[in-house]
Amino acid sequence: MYPIRRNRRLRTNEAIRSLVRETTISPNDFLVPLFVVEGKGVKEEIVSMPNYYRYSLDLLEREVKELWKLGLKSVLLFVKVSDKLKDNTGKEALNPKGLMQRAIKTVKNACPDMLVMTDVALDPYSIYGHDGIIEKGIILNDETADVLAEMSLSHAKAGANFVAPSDMMDGRILTIREALEDEGYFDTGIMSYSAKYASAFYGPFRDALDSAPVDLKNIPKDKKTYQMDYANRFEAIRETEMDIDEGADIVMVKPGLCYLDIVREIKNEVDVPVAVYQVSGEYAMLKAAAEKGWLEHDAVMMEQITAIKRAGADIIASYFAKDVVKLLNS
Ligand code: PBG
Where along the chain is Mg(2+) bound (predicted)? Predict the structure, then answer.
């Protein structure tokens, strides 16, 4: 067709480029992960996640108000639990006065319209750092799902809008959905971590919550018996379709960047919103390279976020959310 068709005409200047741009980013795209700790006046930086913090409840309140002002209207809560409260079955996770339950109330008090999602998994509460109850060298599936259902109910009672099970036990979405329905929590949503891979990119997150699997004689130190093998693609679709059948309102692919082929495939396959979690290791990589002056932080950040959305993400859980929105506003 050359020279009748010259593709560069649509790239001549920023005005035409923005006119034909297919993917744009706004505060509405983001879900902001927040780490919560006990104490007062605590804002501690996570060593492997520069400029990302754990907050005590009083400072959490300040932080969510700031997010709200920036137009960030959804948060995903994680708690760092003291070792004293950890056991094999996650008993503390069901404590109505537990840190998560108080965190939910704190956010709702500070910003009543903020959408509160909660992490539902045993690992922050487990002495072993695993997402399931362990017995005789085995991660128990159904017993774990029952605890996750109770945990979800406890979060719903405290005021959570959505629960987000991140454990990858089989059948847990149905178990949670039934528990919520039985107790009349018809409006509590479930965002399922449906295609969650056994990834080495979760390292900094496990530092943040002190939740890494510990050395055990009869259990491997990784999560490969429940999280997915990163070599697999069809399995992600199967997992996701099953979670939707069991009652998930939103499904998720995790991590982000290395899994954008999976995101696109799932987006083409399903008709519920698809979330993508750009995980801690992805955040840490860019921060480290930028600190060394090897990558231009803001430019690479925007390229990554746009790529995730272009791949099919309706929702992006990202530690960059605040940085991105501040950049958009600048
Ligand atoms: C655990 C959980 C993990 C993350 C979210 N929930 C880590 C894991 O599976 O070990 C990772 C998030 C991140 O790396 O940013 N239930």
Answer: 239
Would you tell me how many other CB atoms lie within 10 Å of the CB of residue 270? 18
DSSP letter for 82, please.
P
Is 239 within any annotated ligand binding site? yes
* Bond prior to 96 in cis (omega within 30° of 0): no
Contact present, 252 and 313 (Cβ < 8 Å): no
Q: Phi first, then psi: what are they for 93, rounded to 5°?
A: -65, -20
Predicted pLDDT of residue 320? 98
**Average pLDDT per 10 consecutive residues for the chain, totaling 330 residues:** 84 98 98 98 97 98 98 98 96 98 98 98 96 94 98 98 97 98 98 97 93 88 95 97 98 98 98 98 98 98 98 98 97
| 27, 72 contact by CB (below 8 A) | yes
Atom of ligand 1 nearest to the CA of 196: 9
Angle formed at CA 239 by CA 126 and CA 93, multiple of 5 degrees: 20
Distance separating the N- and C-terminal Cα atoms of the chain: 41
Residue 227 CA: which ligand 1 atom is closest?
9
d(C-alpha 301, C-alpha 80), whole Å: 27
Q: Tell me, yes or no, if 326 is annotated catalytic.
A: no
65 carries an active-site annotation? no
171 φ/ψ sector (left φ>0, alpha ψ -120 to 50, else beta): left
Residue 104 CA to ligand 1 center (angstroms) comes to 19
The SS3 of residue 138 is strand
* 75/114 Cα distance (integer angstroms): 7
CB neighbours of residue 27 within 10 Å? 18
For residue 173, what pLDDT is reported? 98
CA 179 vs. chain centroid, Å, equals 22
Specify the pLDDT at position 1: 63
- Alpha-carbon span 251 to 249, nearest angstrom: 7
> What residue segments make up the domains of the chain, in order of their start?
25-235+243-248
What's the 218 CA to ligand 1 centre distance in angstroms? 22
Class of domain 25-235+243-248: alpha beta
Does any ligand 1 atom lie closer than 6 A to the CB of residue 202? Answer: yes
